[in-house]
Design goal:
The chain is mostly helical and 64 residues long. It has a domain of 42 residues. It contains three helices and no strands. The chain is globular, with a radius of gyration of 11 Å.
């Protein structure tokens, strides 16, 4: 679970809580990862990575 301490992008900006909310909302609306990425102006890989982390750990927020 050490990856939860570094949920930020390796290159670029951290993914903010509102973006995580939008990813989950749009995922529940059955949008594809690419459509979600276009909606929030992020990379497809970021959306896929974050959804995998969320569904693996069940945690929404990063650890302090």
């Amino acid at each position: 679970m050490e990856f939860l301490y570094n949920i930020n992008w390796r290159r670029g900006q951290p993914i903010h809580e509102i973006e995580r909310n939008l990813i989950l909302l749009n995922h529940e609306r059955r949008l594809t990862n690419q459509e979600i990425a276009n909606e929030i102006n992020r990379d497809f890989k970021t959306v896929k990575l974050w959804l995998n982390r969320f569904y693996t750990t069940g945690m929404f927020k990063t650890l302090p």
